[in-house]
Write a structure and sequence with these properties.
Length: 429
């Protein structure tokens, strides 16, 4: 979220219930990945897109190790490395970029959408990637569309990479005044297909998804569009969609049986679907989800959990774990608290859970050590040191890579939290 968006989020009108609970705001050292990380799931999602990072060897190493890409694989992303002579202003970075893009598109003719992704180094040398994208568009259109966004790690967290990418797509969406439902946020294909089946059964449609699986399927948008956020970290994308006339359907996020039902109901209400029909369509899926979740309750009920701020999924996860598995959130830390998008979630949180926004890792570590939670959800950088201190941890980034939304994934989502506790019990035996 940009600074402006953050300021907006902090000035949202308050809503009743837990949403009024005080929030501890901190600004200090943080331990998070940068927005480049989003490419790891986005490049799998948009199948004819390519992500060209304009960055340094550090950026290339991050992508290589985070994605686990083998050297002979043909992934749909790469890093154009800015060398020292570029940084010193001795070479024309724009000429280099045009050459690299020309080579790439000649070698990979299947590419239809090319993202130039900015990084800390490209921002340091003030390489104007929006101008570069406009220039490259004139060279390579109509076969390839070239867009740009920033994945820089300066004042961002890793899920903001997806927000920036989707925000870059919004101006490309054609105007379409017809009514329709737009689901916003990258979902695994299996989840997307399940959601589509539910909407079809309810008679809601046409339904489109952002991002689309192929560049040519970018949906239209206009005053008839109602959209549901599938992810809680899309503040800028939502703002741009609203500026095109679309209206957000307020709902909790589709995590767990309860969250999925409430999310689907928001669309059903907007389409005027009778409550009896809604129950008919959702009852079996919801019951299946509750049964799958129940298998993990014995392991998780009564256990305390501490969230370090990382993925921005922390609030919906804490709601799911407290309400459907009887876990006790001690502290729910999140990088940014978007009060409007999270209003329905905040109202469902237990009143005694402490909320914190931003980050000051040393203070958070002190609070975590004092609370001695049964489970800690945190970034990769904190997990190993905390495990060495005897804490049981869960990597928050796994929750972004794994299909966790919807009824059929609710059991898997619960298992992501019960498994580390189960593993530690086994280690103790
Ligand atoms: S964009 Fe910045 S934070 Fe991210 S890997 Fe590159 S240098 Fe590091």
């Amino acid at each position: 979220m940009s600074g402006a968006a953050l300021a907006r989020a902090q000035h949202q009108p308050s809503v009743p219930g837990c949403a009024e609970a005080p929030v501890l705001r901190e600004r200090g050292q943080r331990e998070v990945f940068c927005g480049l990380t989003g490419i790891i799931w986005l490049h799998r999602k948009i199948q004819d897109a390519f992500f060209l990072i304009i960055g340094s060897r550090t950026c290339a190493h991050l992508m290589q190790s985070a994605a686990g890409v083998m050297i002979f694989a043909e992934p749909r992303f790469a890093t154009a490395i800015i060398e020292e002579r570029d940084l010193a202003g001795m070479a024309d970075a724009n000429e280099e970029l045009d050459r690299v893009v020309g080579q790439l598109l000649a070698r990979r003719p299947e590419i239809r959408l090319l993202f130039l992704v900015g990084s800390c180094p490209s921002e340091v040398i003030k390489l104007d990637l929006s101008r570069a994208a406009a220039r490259l568009n004139t060279q390579h259109s109509p076969g390839v569309r070239v867009l740009n966004y920033s994945g820089s790690g300066i004042e961002t967290t890793f899920t903001q990479g997806e927000d920036a990418c989707l925000a870059a797509l919004v101006p490309e969406m054609r105007a379409d005044p017809a009514p329709g439902l737009l689901v916003v946020g990258a979902l695994a294909e299996v989840v997307e297909d399940q959601m589509r089946r539910h909407f079809d059964a309810l008679g809601i449609g046409p339904v489109t998804f952002l991002p689309p699986r192929r560049a040519a399927d970018l949906p239209g948008i206009g005053p008839g569009t109602r959209f549901l956020l599938a992810q809680p970290f899309l503040a800028e994308t939502a703002r741009l969609l609203e500026s095109r006339g679309a209206r957000r359907l307020a709902a909790p996020f589709p995590l767990g049986a309860e969250g999925t039902t409430a999310w689907l109901r928001a669309a059903a209400d907007a389409w005027g679907i009778p409550a009896s029909r809604f129950r008919e369509v959702t009852a079996v899926g919801e019951q299946r989800a509750r049964t799958a979740i129940a298998r993990h309750r014995e392991q998780l009920a009564g256990r305390s959990i501490f969230f370090f701020p990382d993925s921005q999924l922390e609030v919906p996860l804490a709601r799911f774990l407290s309400r459907e598995l009887d876990m006790q959130p001690v502290e729910i830390g999140t990088p940014y608290l978007h009060r409007q998008h999270l209003a329905e979630e905040l109202a469902l949180l237990p009143t005694d859970a402490a909320l914190s926004e931003g980050g000051d890792v040393d203070r958070q570590l002190d609070r975590c050590r004092a609370a001695r939670p049964d489970l800690v959800v945190c970034g990769l950088g904190l997990a190993n040191p905390l495990e060495a201190e005897g804490f049981t941890t869960k990597w928050s980034i796994e929750l972004v890579f794994t299909p966790i939304q919807g009824y059929d994934q609710a059991g898997d989502l619960a298992e992501l939290f019960s498994r580390p506790l189960h593993r530690r019990t086994r280690l103790k035996v």
